[in-house]
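Notes to self after the call with IL:
- keep both proteins in one doc
- input above output, always
- annotate only the second one for now

Protein 1:
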Amino acid sequence: MPPRLRSALSAVLLALSCLLAPFGALAAWAAYGLVDTGRYVTTMAPLAADPNVREAVVDTVGDGILRAVDQHLGVRPAGGSVRPFVRDAVRSFTQTEAFRLAWDTGNRVTHDAIVRALRDEEDGGAAGRPVTVDLAAVTDQVKRQLTRDHVPLAARIPVEHTAVPVLPAGELASFRKGFHVLEVAGFWLPVAAVAFAATGIALAVRRRRAVAATALGTALGGGLLALALAVGRGLTLAGLPADVPHPAAGAVYDALTGTLRTAAWLLLGLGLTVALTAWLTRHLPLTRRLLPLRPAHAPHPSAPPVSPPPHAPAQTPTRAEA
């Protein structure tokens, strides 16, 4: 194959590899991290101790209890002394082990329902609901706490399903449209990126330069992916409804994209490291060649001068020399 054709084909393959690297990381994160229920529950578990999430739970559950009392009992306790008791009871419950267990259980049940809705095209109802955490167990525990504290009307509080939205329904619709594509792309995009990179480097006329270019392109893709996550966070929070607490939604976004953020920084760091290594291995031999070298026949400064043997017989010039 002519060198020009090899260089052109190598450049195309390396460009495709650098382009597919961040998209492969995104697809793998969505297909293997976001959709897996066990990983999702493990990712969301630390949010039970997040202050912003706890305050969102206090607001949602407290308002839900007061609203249920208003609807079912025909009284309006909002203006009286019940509201502080309700909020304090909910806030106290969010610091217990029972709340963390209810949080994990609610996340698991909700995530299972969403995954089933994404994989079942005929079930359109689940796709129209936002991602929520069901806090009926929290309401029940708060009711028991208020009853023990002898709060009026606490025993008559109905326990209803109260949910905290963590993703709007519009996001679910987008996820469902690309879900089947992500399941395929999550495996094949990273494989294709590695295959294109290996083939492009093998075809390159100057392989060290091809390795450095591939590494820099991968680092650039990782940096752009990290930037896209930061911009996406702002856009996601700006598009949320006014009744969704933004600090809690931001904590959820950060938790869900933590693995993808790590992958982006890994691509950036690994690419820069490989590019720097390729540059050093290219210039170190040149630096060594430019260093002044001591002649091989020059005697060492500390070595004594070499004198001829004392009894060496003098050479008689031959007739030709004479």
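Protein 2 (the one to annotate):
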Amino acid sequence: MSSTPTTQSHPAQQAKKEALLQALNKTPFRVPRWLRGQHSQTLWAALARRPKGIQRSQEWLDTPDNDQLRLYSIAGDPEKPTVLLLHGLEGSAQSPYILGLQRLFAQQGWNTYALEFRTCGGEFNNAQRLYHLGETTDLDLVVRFLLERDPAMRLYLAGFSMGGNITGKWLGEKADKVPSQIKGASIVSSPFDLTISGPHIDKVFAGIYVRYFLRTLIPKALKKHKQFPGVLDAEKIRRSKTFQEFDTYATAALHGFEDAQDYWEQSSCGQFLPHIHVPTMLLTSADDPFNPPSTLPTEHAERSPFLIPQFTQRGGHVGFVAGAPWKTYNWAEHQTLRFFNLLSNAD
């Protein structure tokens, strides 16, 4: 891993960062009075939003372990950049924020791809694995595939929640080995420290959020148990009521971690942020019900010339709903569009 970038070692990048911050701060998030709560922001964005359908092409990418990854793309102007979008835990390419952001970039003539993680689009995978918050090999495979097909591509990454964690971890792991075609990244509502966020979400909102996720995660793990008998303890998975339990008996057991704590420690993207060498916007809210404000990487963002903080007081988790009830828009998606346009125009 390369040396950690600092403002002193990259004065030109620091000047670029200050200009980006000045431009981005002209469009702050203004939380509407009718939707101020952290849970109302989170739930409205996830459940009440219904983006209009968009025309997308599908293609399958074979993986080295006999699986396939599905990409949903919209072709734009071949002279314009490309954005690769990554969804959150138990989301898919049909998630409202993926559809919404793809539509925004399509209106600008940009090219977009939405990566669907294994088992997240209705198709169950073949390999002895699922997907998880620290698994970056699929992202790496897709990036290499896209750049091999078009070496002149200018590629941007936009990750939400889990997808943001994977994006930040991959950029930090690769450090100065990230392909030069990667021009920027946006990380929205990422769990920068899973050792804090994991136990927290087990308790917040009377456990409603964790039950929501486990209702689909547990059946997937049990199906994987049937595919590969003896690998997992089906009864312990079936009885799991928290992420601590599920990540120990399913995620960790299936992917080679000792337990949930080991999985969380190795997978958190916060520890990789200081090594990022690509302009990366960190957009998250202090009232995110999944990630306590103590997890905000404020010191990393201050020290690195490549990290562009957009930390808000309100917004919930992948919420950032703005506007009137009859005409809402998503500030995080618009801010991602602004950020990438700023980078592209300065390139």
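Annotation: Residues 19 and 342 are 10 Å apart (CA to CA). The chain has a mean pLDDT of 96.
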